[in-house]
Write a structure and sequence with these properties.
With 305 residues, the protein is of the alpha/beta class. Helix content is 36%, strand content 15%. The longest helix has 20 residues.
């Protein structure tokens, strides 16, 4: 039985295969419409979510399966004091696979120790978000035709941004990737991510607080919001929340084939006027999320078409 807790649980070859399957699903959706008929996905979301939860549900329904679960902790028995382990153990009796989001780092890993079915980490605190990473990788592949030989800039909250941590780790396994880390001093990429994913492999990276100065270098720009829910101090959040706002004027300095990604939701870090720019890939990214989750569900359930 396989789980997906961290993106490094998958080999590069497995990631490439998932992308290939997702590409085939995009090209031939009818072929997969009954791939998981009779199978049930449980979505256990102890933390609010719109895109990720609905993406998983849409993915399973599009495979001919069914869905059960809850969308907030207060609507589960955890409100009565039940442990995550007991909740997962019980749900394992009803479902064939579980997608779980939790505000505490490591909760999906702990759940996997007691679950009798595959566990997919749908985000654990500020730590990891591997299915968003698969979404990002599929998007980059569809936008660029490759997963190597480019410069990628990560901008915004790199400290608490679990999507950033996972994507840096994933891209560090491909050839000739250069990283540009753009953030306020207070929200820099954690040292452990830099040590494990970049420094240990001798991968080049630069750190800066100035987006506009590095924008012309980038092939991919990965924007993130400053996350209010990760701050203990409201004043600190308010001081940093508007650190970077991407506008059409700033994009005049960028490459004509730049790809702009964002895991969403956005607040105001990308001006809505940018949505009309063909370089804005974040709505295409949302669609890709469903397709790659379909591929992942099939892989973890051992389903072949």
């Amino acid at each position: 039985m396989r789980n997906l807790i961290d993106i490094t649980d998958l080999s590069v070859e497995e990631i490439d295969q998932l992308i290939a399957t997702a590409e085939d699903i995009i090209a031939n959706p009818a072929k997969y419409s009954q791939a998981c008929a009779g199978k049930q996905l449980a979505t256990l979301f102890f933390e609010p979510s719109t895109r990720t939860r609905l993406s998983f549900e849409s993915a399973m329904l599009s495979l001919g399966g069914s869905v059960l679960g809850f969308s907030e902790a207060n609507s589960s028995s955890s409100a009565k004091g039940e442990t995550v382990g007991d909740t997962v153990h019980a749900v394992s009796c009803y479902a064939d696979i579980i997608a779980m989001r939790h505000p505490k780092e490591g909760a999906p890993y702990a759940a996997a120790q007691v679950a009798e079915v595959p566990i997919i980490n749908a985000g654990d605190g500020g730590h990891n978000h591997p299915t968003q990473t698969l979404t990002d990788l599929l998007t980059i592949h569809r936008e660029k035709g490759r997963l190597d030989n480019f410069t990628v800039g990560f901008c915004g909250d790199l400290k608490f941004g679990r999507t950033v941590h996972s994507l840096v780790s994933a891209l560090s396994r491909y050839e000739n990737i250069r990283f540009v880390l753009i953030s306020p001093q207070e929200l820099k990429l954690p040292r452990y991510v830099k040590e494990e994913a970049l420094k240990s492999k001798g991968i080049p990276y630069t750190q800066t607080t100035d987006l506009e100065s590095v924008l012309p270098q980038l092939d991919i720009l990965y924007m993130t919001r400053v996350q209010r829910e990760r701050f203990f101090n409201e004043e600190e959040y308010l001081r940093l929340k508007d650190s970077y706002v991407l506008t059409p004027e700033k994009l005049e300095k960028a490459k004509a084939d730049l790809s702009i990604l964002h895991p969403l939701p956005r607040v105001n870090e990308i001006d809505v006027a940018v949505d009309k720019d063909p370089r804005a890939a974040y709505w295409r990214q949302v669609k890709n999320g469903k397709m790659v989750r379909m591929a992942l569900i099939m892989m973890l359930l051992g389903v072949e078409v």
